[in-house]
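Tokens for chain A. Residues wanted.
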């Protein structure tokens, strides 16, 4: 019998549980940090959650992109350090969300679907974005090159 409803966790699981359901190949996590203002741009390819937290306190614009599949402990640390809402973080790891936007205090949380080809068939991959003040925090379970053209354009000053 086909399932009509997708179940992320067993009944009774507390809200905000970060158990990732593996749908695709598990890519190791990578954090790319881009910090810029009108006169400069700085890009760090293997940033740590501690470093990301420090950059969020700066007056410049900061974009933190988490690519791949962070482990549960890493997600908890990122959520704590970057002050991400636990229910939104749960939606980040359950990558079969419908596109949506939600607000959590001063945070705007956006889920978008990116068309992709997986094993020869058309599908989609989820991109999750947190917009907070002068920062963007994005999650994507694929390789970090997803936003490469945007990083290149930021660096070119266009």
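Reply:
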């Amino acid at each position: 019998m086909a399932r009509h409803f997708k179940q992320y966790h067993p009944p009774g699981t507390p809200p905000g549980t970060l158990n990732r359901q593996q749908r695709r190949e598990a890519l190791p996590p990578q954090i790319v940090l881009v910090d810029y203002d009108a006169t400069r741009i700085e890009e760090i390819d293997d940033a740590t959650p501690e470093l990301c937290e420090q950059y969020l306190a700066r007056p410049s614009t900061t974009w933190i992109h988490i690519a791949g599949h962070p482990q549960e402990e890493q997600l908890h640390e990122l959520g704590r350090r970057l002050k991400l809402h636990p229910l939104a973080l749960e939606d980040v790891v359950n990558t079969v969300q419908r596109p949506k936007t939600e607000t959590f205090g001063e945070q705007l949380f956006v889920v978008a679907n990116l068309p992709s080809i997986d094993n020869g068939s058309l599908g989609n991959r989820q991109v999750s974005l947190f917009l907070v003040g002068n920062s963007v925090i994005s999650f994507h379970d694929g390789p970090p090159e997803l936003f490469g053209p945007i990083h290149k354009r930021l660096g070119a000053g266009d």
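The radius of gyration is 16 Å. Residues 1-7 have pLDDT under 50 and may be disordered.
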